Amino acid sequence: MAKNFVINNGNFTANGNFSGYTALGQRVHFHKRQMESLGWKTDAEIKFPFYAIAEDKEIGQLDANGQAVVDANGVPVTSKRLTALSAFQNRDAIKQAHADNALLDIEIAQEIKAQASSAGLTDSAISALSAVAF
């Protein structure tokens, strides 16, 4: 499940990704392209704090040669990594992203209800339709 995070320190890795940390020491992985989309390519360019929506993702383990690590049965070895889904330069931007998402869901529900009403569906049929739409 995705959660919100305040990133107050961190640094770029050798391959250009970013390891960000919260005040509570949680590490959040940011892909290089996410940081570049914020206009940040070096540690000196970053303006803390910044914000993220992140969740745990399963990632495959790699050996020193960049090859997938597999167990004795040939199954890839994985672990969970807290990974940013989205990154935002400021608090207002992350709040707006959540508001836009919630408002879109409300607008869709209203549109379904309006079109169902104009099609002559009863209130109970509209309620049933709305229940399966979300």
Number of helices: 3
Supply Rg: 21 Å
Question: Which percent range fits the helix content?
Answer: 25-40%
Q: What is the ordering of alpha helices and beta strands? A: EEEEHEEHH
Runs with pLDDT <50, length 5+? none
Quaternary status of these chains?
single chain
| CATH topology descriptor of the largest domain | OB fold (Dihydrolipoamide Acetyltransferase, E2P)
Q: In the CATH classification, which architecture of the largest domain applies?
A: Beta Barrel
**Terminal Cα span:** 17 Å
- Reading side by side through the largest sheet, how are the strands ordered? 1-5-6
Which class best fits the helix and strand makeup?
A: alpha+beta
Number of strands: 6
Strand content: 25-35%
Write down the CATH class of the largest domain: Mainly Beta
Outline the biggest β-sheet: 3 strands, antiparallel
- Mean of all residue-level pLDDT scores: 93
Describe this structure in words.
- The protein has helices at residues 32-37, 91-118, 123-133, and strands spanning 3-7, 9-12, 18-21, 27-30, 50-60, 78-88.
- It is built from 3 helices and 6 strands.
- It has 2 domains: 1-89, OB fold (Dihydrolipoamide Acetyltransferase, E2P), CATH 2.40.50; 91-134.
- Helix 2 runs antiparallel to helix 3 (123-133).
- By secondary structure, it is an alpha+beta fold.
- The strands form 2 sheets. The chain has a 3-stranded antiparallel β-sheet with strand order 1-5-6. Strands 2-3-4 form a 3-stranded antiparallel β-sheet.
